[in-house]
Amino acid sequence: MFYTAESIEQLAEQFAQLPGIGRKTAHRLALYILKMPREEVETLAKALVNVKDKVRYCSICSNITETDPCSICSNTKRERASICVVEEPHDVIAIEKTHEFKGLYHVLGGALSPLDGIGPDDLKIKELLQRFSNTTIDEVILALNPNVEGEATTLYLSKLLKPLGMKVTRIARGLPVGSDLEFADEATLTRALEGRIAV
After folding, report:
1. 33 is in which domain, residue-wise?
2. pLDDT above 80 for 116
3. CB under 8 Å to 72, separation ≥6 — which residues?
4. pTM listed for this prediction
């Protein structure tokens, strides 16, 4: 039984399928769309369709792009000797916002998770290895999430890449800026102590 119009319920159901959107928020969004001017709703609908029609994965790094290769891979000013390996395209965005890394990227499309049935063949690991046969890479930076899956993927990749004769590093882990020591868990404090630097 619908308490509002059936089309509102259907829209709310679609919103509720998005990550982080619960039933209440989904209904609020559906009702907000109802109040929007038709032109804005059409613009939103067109933007959704454009994402599906125009966005694809870069044939080199597997990042999301509208042009192939992507703007990072095709940028001749990027350092070609280092590749930063990340799990998802949003990780590339996060690192790019720092303006610190000037090399190339490789997006795996996830992390190893045997419990979820995700093994090495489900990730873009073969494509990563193929990149080493075409160019000279001095360093591979593993910038994977500091969770069980990310740690497993980091360990797997480091064992796979080290025999190829390149430097394999991982991003530092530790305390975030603005946090208090008393609220940090033991693993985070341990990693912060292991990764200490001279001042």
Report:
1. 6-54
2. yes
3. 58, 61, 63, 78, 92, 96, 104, 105
4. 0.82
